[in-house]
Write a structure and sequence with these properties.
The structure holds 2 protein chains of 2 kinds. Chain A folds into 2 domains: 248 residues, Aconitase, domain 3 (2-Layer Sandwich); 148 residues, 2-Layer Sandwich (Aconitase, domain 3). Helices cover 31% and strands 18% of the residues of chain A. By secondary structure, chain A is α/β, with parallel strands linked by helices. Chain A has a 5-stranded parallel beta sheet, with helices on both faces. The termini of chain A are far apart. Chain B is of the alpha/beta class. Chain B has one domain: Aconitase, domain 4, CATH 3.20.19.10. Chain B contains 8 helices and 7 strands; from the N terminus they run βαααβαβαβαβββαα. In chain B, a hairpin with a 4-residue loop joins strand 5 and strand 6. Classes of the chains: A alpha/beta, B alpha/beta. At the A-B interface, helix 2, helix 3 and helix 5 of A face helix 5 and helix 8 of B.
Chain lengths: 418, 170
């Protein structure tokens, strides 16, 4: 019967069943496990399980991203443990500092996320690589240990929410603005335990770097995975990996738990206000809010296209007095490309800083953590209290364009007017 | 396995994220004592200091939303919290809790029916919460697969048990 969603197709194949239904609990074979520093926390439970070798080192990818380079001795030790484990276990795809990236970006840009694959990652934003047509879900340290030992994971087959988007976005409006609008409609738990599939001409017309933004922030809808049919855009993006490509989407008669339709024709930029990603307003409503920091970084919006966009707006301009602009590329490759394209010089000329690739301040870890009462406009994904440092700090989530315009004027600024 | 709990309630609101539970500044260690000491410190500074083993946490919808950090669960287990009851949980927090053998129960409306400090009773098998006033709220019991993990004492003990059984039969 041709009535299966993308998530149902992947989970049926991965659990060796003809078909699965939402609510079923399946024991599934993992195609790819990827990890960052959380691997260090999984070593205890892995050793306790008592299986000395990982199930398949060729199905594992590891990098370091949260604290790069290590800000203190404890973290340095954590990195050492990860390095030692990868060496001992023969994990060839360990991307150490220097060849690293925020893990989701690394997985996407290296072509490791292929359509139809079952992927689990040690981070909540694993949802992002579902933009390549994979079923990609985040898990915690104990689950990671279990997958390392057995190559299997138990999963509840999710209901699927269909998000249909049509219309031509207004000027200086992007996937970030769209997903903020979607989250505002569903709430930050509107897709809890569910798979979210994006459909519609607006999505079809989006290049991969924008599709990745949509799937990335399905996490902020509470979703288990975000998925987009792997079409010719995905095929071109993944071609360099030289893996057999299968076009892959849900069936015409697939059953969706809920369907949301958005007409984004002419829609303008959106901003998620403190302190919930669903607290979204049109940029006009918050324009004029004074900022201290503008942070362009994270897996959500720090790809080369995001940097180009911000640089285009900042070129020849200066960051407002008293405002700090920090640009942190999502991977080492993007870092290099930004240098080659002259983008770094534009940010520095504007009075900004440019750092090595790391998650850094997005999760309040290091390298730009906020003090109490500081106001930050950020291209990241979450703004719960304490997320980027002090629980008193105020974080506004926006697109790289809104962020760049705001950095110039020192207040939240409509990028259409910058 | 313990399936019935009686304990004092610590009540929290909705959308309590893992950033609320344990902020990133404390993640640079694998020592659960650190997570416990700073658990929910920006929501209720008394909690980590005064919570007693056997106390229950009750909260509003979407408890544990945000990051995948299992440290958020370890903070509660290290403090001896016996179970968490909320109308809904974020999915990774839910898995992490079950994997650490911390019962998490989705009980609609619970956060509006209990008060801080009162004693409630929780019965996992019957799917019931009894409030201090004697009102009984029901919830759908955990699926058998999830109960099995809890019963084994968490995912790691369950895997060890399964592996031992497989070895014995082969």
């Amino acid at each position: 019967m041709a009535d299966r969603t993308m998530a149902e197709k992947v989970l049926a194949r991965a659990s060796g069943r003809d078909r699965v239904a939402p609510g079923d609990i399946v024991d599934a074979t993992v195609d790819l496990l990827y990890m960052h520093e959380m691997l260090a926390l999984a070593l205890g439970p892995f050793n306790e399980i008592g299986i000395p070798k990982v199930w398949d080192p060729t199905k594992i990818v590891v990098t370091l991203d949260h604290w790069v380079p290590p800000p203190n001795e404890q973290i340095a030790k954590m990195h050492q443990q990860v390095r030692d484990f990868c060496k001992k276990q023969g994990i060839a795809r360990f991307h150490d500092v220097g060849d690293h990236g925020i893990v989701h970006q690394l997985i996407a840009e290296r072509g490791y996320a292929q359509p139809g694959k079952l992927i689990v990652g040690s981070d909540s934003h694993t949802n992002m690589v579902g933009a390549c047509g994979a079923f990609a879900a985040g898990i915690g340290a104990t689950d990671v240990a279990a997958v390392l030992a057995t190559g299997r994971v138990w999963l509840r087959v999710p209901e699927t929410m269909k998000v249909f988007i049509e219309g031509l976005l207004g000027p200086r409006t992007y996937a970030k603005d769209v997903i903020l609008k979607v989250i505002a409609t569903t709430g930050d738990d509107g897709a809890r335990y569910q798979a979210v599939e994006f459909h519609g001409p607006t999505v079809k017309a989006m290049p991969m770097h924008e599709r990745l933004v949509l799937c990335n922030m399905t996490t902020e809808m509470g979703a288990k995975v975000g998925m987009i049919e792997a079409d010719e855009v995905a095929q071109e993006y993944l071609a360099h990996a030289k893996e057999p490509f299968t076009s892959f989407g849900s069936d015409e008669d697939a059953r969706f738990e809920a369907t949301y339709e958005f007409d984004v024709d002419g829609m303008g930029p959106q901003v998620a206000c403190p302190s919930n990603p669903a607290n979204v307003k049109p940029v006009e409503d918050v324009a004029g809010t004074k900022i201290d920091v503008a942070f362009l970084g994270s897996c959500t919006n720090a790809r080369i296209e995001d940097l180009r966009l911000a640089a285009e707006i900042l070129k020849g301009k200066k960051v407002a007095p008293g405002v700090r602009l920090q640009v942190t590329p999502a991977s080492q490759r993007i870092y290099r490309q930004a240098i080659q394209e002259g983008l770094v010089e534009i940010f520095l000329d504007a009075g900004g800083t440019f750092t090595q690739s790391t998650c850094g301040p997005c999760f309040g870890g290091h390298l730009g953590v906020l003090a109490g009462n500081e106001v930050c406009i950020s291209s990241t994904n979450r703004n719960y209290p304490g997320r980027m440092g002090s629980p008193q700090a105020q974080v506004y989530l926006a697109s790289p364009a809104t962020l760049a315009a705001s950095a110039i004027y020192g207040v939240i600024t409509d990028p259409r007017e910058a | 396995m313990q399936t019935r709990f009686r304990g004092r309630v610590w009540l929290f609101g909705e959308d309590i994220s893992t950033d609320h539970i344990i902020t990133a500044g404390y993640l640079g260690t694998t020592d659960p004592k650190v997570f416990a000491e700073h658990c929910l410190e920006n929501v209720d500074a008394r909690f980590a200091k005064e919570v007693k083993p056997g106390d229950l946490v009750v909260a509003g919808p979407n408890f544990g939303c945000g990051s995948s950090r299992e440290q958020a669960v370890l903070a509660f287990t290290h403090l001896g919290v016996s179970a968490i009851v909320a109308p809904s949980f974020a999915r990774i927090f839910f898995r992490n809790a079950i994997n650490q053998a911390l019962p998490v129960v989705e009980c609609p409306g619970i956060h509006e029916k209990v008060k801080p400090n009162e004693e409630i009773e929780l019965d996992l098998e019957r799917g019931e919460v009894k409030t201090a006033s004697g009102e009984i709220l029901t919830f759908r019991p955990l699926p058998p697969h999830v109960l099995e993990i809890l019963e084994a004492g968490g995912l790691v003990p369950k895997l060890k048990r399964d592996l031992a059984a497989r070895r014995a039969s082969s």
